[in-house]
Specification:
By secondary structure, the protein is of the alpha+beta class. The chain contains two helices and three strands; from the N terminus they run H-E-E-E-H. The two termini are 37 Å apart.
Length: 106
Amino acid sequence: MKGMGNMGNMMKQMQKMQKKMMKAQDELLAMEFEASVGGGMVTVVANGSRQILDVQIKEEVVDPDDVEMLQDLILTAINDVMKQIEEKTEQTMGQFTKGLNMPGMF
């Protein structure tokens, strides 16, 4: 019966870790990330849920004869902000899966 006490402690620790993980995930989803490219010509803001919240484009960068440059700037800003979210997610959630070999988790 001695092993049952250890199992109970382990379950409590798992529940505590799960609560911390859920709190960290909620905080991550509420965070806002921003990427600016072209010297601030295009700025994209997204949240931790990977939803684009805002796109700002400076008037000077809008050139009807060079739409491709504007498209490239927008794509670069979006990719940059998504990379920030990915890195922060790995950094934040990785602390909970460190040492566990669980493919597909974060």
